[in-house]
Amino acid sequence: MAALLGIVSPVTFTGHSQLPVKLPSRRRLVVKSSSSSDERQILFNRIAPVYDNLNDLLSLGQHRIWKNMAVSWSGARTGDKVLDLCCGSGDLAFLLSEKVGPSGKVMGLDFSSEQLAVAASRQKLRGRSCYKCIEWIEGDATDLPFDDCEFDAITMGYGLRNVVDRDRAMREMYRVLKPGSRVSILDFNKSNQSVTTFMQDWMIDNVVVPVATLYDLAKEYEYLKYSINGYLTGEELETLASEAGFSSARHYEISGGFMGNLVAVR
Questions:
Q1: Which residue from 56, 115, 144, 206 has the highest number of Cβ atoms inside 10 Å of its Cβ?
Q2: Do the strands 248-254 and 12-14 form a parallel or antiparallel pair, or are they unpaired?
Q3: Intra-chain end-to-end CA distance of the chain, in Å
Q4: What one-character DSSP code corresponds to residue 216?
Q5: pTM of structure
Q6: H-helix or E-strand containing 218?
Q7: C-alpha span between 14 and 144 (Å, rounded)
Q8: Distance between CA atoms of 130 and 94, rounded to whole angstroms?
Q9: Distances from the Cα of 81 to the Cα of 64, 121, 136, 174, 257, angstroms
Q10: What's residue 51's pLDDT?
Q11: Count of CB atoms within 10 A of residue 140's CB?
Q12: Which residues partner with 263 through β-bridges?
């Protein structure tokens, strides 16, 4: 979901733990677990055409900094096979491809066919050889079409908050990740600080939704505030990862506490 305005600040952490351009033949249709999942799929299909423009506008371009941080935390290296879950229009997948290079492999998975179409179109416009290593798959984050211990790193940007069954999604990430490898999950931070929560709500009501109204997407972006309120705190995300089997997990607050990134090691 489009990123809020914010000023990048030093990273802090919460909790106490340590640390080709076509939809491929192995494409998997979404497994719809509930009407809520259906509604979210429709929402992301609808916002796909303007998603990237709104991200840039509403974050003043800072979402690119946050995404670079998330990819760096994943530990992806040259030649790795990596997975970007809830890949949307492909920002994190493109960054991952630059890390793994032409000898690596990036799988970008999303349940929105419209978002994947945008990602594939963007891929066609990019000339570097590393971008050719990306494969787009339509699928469900709670039922991944991959083998056990298949990936060297996983990223997920603004996706876990929108997954209906987060515990199952986390366990699926654990299953397909190689031992010792990391998952890096970027999203809005559900803060315990009342001032931060107030500012998030104010920004959504007075900046995000009015701007989205210009694109006839007010209702779609009103959903943002409710999804953040229903999300997990940093400590709760660390617990979620630990209960899924990860050996260590740490949640970092970034951008003044507006954003957060969970890093977990299998």
A1: 115
A2: antiparallel
A3: 27
A4: T
A5: 0.82
A6: helix 218-229
A7: 29
A8: 9
A9: 22, 22, 14, 15, 31
A10: 63
A11: 24
A12: 184, 250
According to the model, what pLDDT value does residue 13 have? 46
Strand order in the sheet with 248-254: 12-14, 248-254, 259-265, 177-188, 151-157, 81-85, 105-110, 134-138
Per-residue 3-state assignment (H helix, E strand, C coil) for 90-145: CHHHHHHHHHHCCCCEEEEEECCHHHHHHHHHHHHCCCCHHHHHEEEEECECCECC
C-alpha to C-alpha distance for 178 and 186, rounded to whole angstroms? 20
> What is the rounded CA–CA span in Å between residue 113 and residue 91?
16
**Residue 106 φ/ψ region, left for φ over 0, alpha for ψ in the -120 to 50 degree band, beta for the rest:** beta
241 contacts 170 by C-beta, under 8 angstroms: yes
> What is the DSSP secondary structure assignment for residue 206, as one 8-state letter?
I
Least confident piece of the model among 73-77, 90-94, 194-198, 220-224: 220-224
pLDDT of 25 higher than 50: no
Q: What residues are paired with 262 via a beta bridge? A: 185, 251
* Token pair of 30 as six digits: 């979404």
**Residue of 258, 264, 265 whose CA lies nearest to 65:** 258
Q: In this structure, what token pair is assigned to residue 117?
A: 């179409």
Say how far apart CA 121 and CA 139 lie, in whole Å: 19
- Integer CA distances (angstroms), 58 to 154, 189, 205, 211, 225, in order: 26, 16, 13, 8, 15
The DSSP code sequence of 30-82 is: ----SHHHHHHHHHHHHHGGGHHHHHHHHHTTTHHHHHHHHHHHHT--TT-EE
Contacts of residue 10, defined as CB under 8 A and 6 or more positions apart, other chains included, come to none
